[in-house]
TrEMBL record:
<dbReference type="InterPro" id="IPR036388">
    <property type="entry name" value="WH-like_DNA-bd_sf"/>
</dbReference>
<dbReference type="InterPro" id="IPR036390">
    <property type="entry name" value="WH_DNA-bd_sf"/>
</dbReference>
<keyword id="KW-0804">Transcription</keyword>
<protein>
    <submittedName>
        <fullName>Metalloregulator ArsR/SmtB family transcription factor</fullName>
    </submittedName>
</protein>
<keyword id="KW-0805">Transcription regulation</keyword>
<keyword id="KW-0238">DNA-binding</keyword>
<dbReference type="InterPro" id="IPR001845">
    <property type="entry name" value="HTH_ArsR_DNA-bd_dom"/>
</dbReference>
<feature type="domain" description="HTH arsR-type">
    <location>
        <begin position="6"/>
        <end position="100"/>
    </location>
</feature>
<dbReference type="Pfam" id="PF01022">
    <property type="entry name" value="HTH_5"/>
</dbReference>
<dbReference type="InterPro" id="IPR051011">
    <property type="entry name" value="Metal_resp_trans_reg"/>
</dbReference>
<dbReference type="InterPro" id="IPR011991">
    <property type="entry name" value="ArsR-like_HTH"/>
</dbReference>
C-alpha cells in the first residue's frame, strides 16, 4: 500500500526520517552500512569516531528502521534496513554526482 502524501501522519514520519538523515554524522554511518553488514568498531574506525558515539547514532537509526542489527557471537553487525533505504541513498548519491547541465542554481 502506497502512503498518501495527504496523510499528516505519513508526512510527519517522513520528515522525522529526513531529519535523522540530515545529520552528517548519522548519514556517514548509514552510508558505511550500504555495502553490507559492518561492526560498530569498524564503522567508528573508518569514520574516526568513538564507538560510543557511533552506537548512540545507530540506536536512533535502528529505532527509525533505517538500519538493522544482527548479532554474531559477541559482535553486532549493522546494515541498511532494506532495499528502500539503500535505493534512496544510492539514487541521491547518483543525483548529486550528475553534472548540472546548465541548470541555473
Amino acid at each position: 500500500m502506497k502512503p498518501s502524501p495527504d496523510n499528516d501522519a505519513s508526512i510527519a514520519q517522513l520528515a522525522d526520517l529526513f531529519h535523522l538523515l540530515g545529520d552528517p554524522t548519522r548519514l556517514r554511518i548509514v552510508l558505511s552500512c550500504l555495502a553490507g553488514p559492518i561492526a560498530v568498531g569498524d564503522i567508528a574506525a573508518g569514520l574516526q569516531l568513538s564507538s560510543s558515539l557511533v552506537s548512540h547514532h545507530l540506536r536512533l537509526l535502528r529505532a527509525a528502521r533505517i538500519v538493522k542489527a544482527e548479532r554474531q557471537g559477541k559482535q553486532v553487525f549493522y546494515s541498511t534496513a532494506d532495499a528502500h533505504i539503500s535505493g534512496v541513498l544510492t539514487d541521491m548519491l547518483e543525483h548529486i554526482a550528475e553534472p548540472t547541465n546548465g541548470i541555473d542554481p
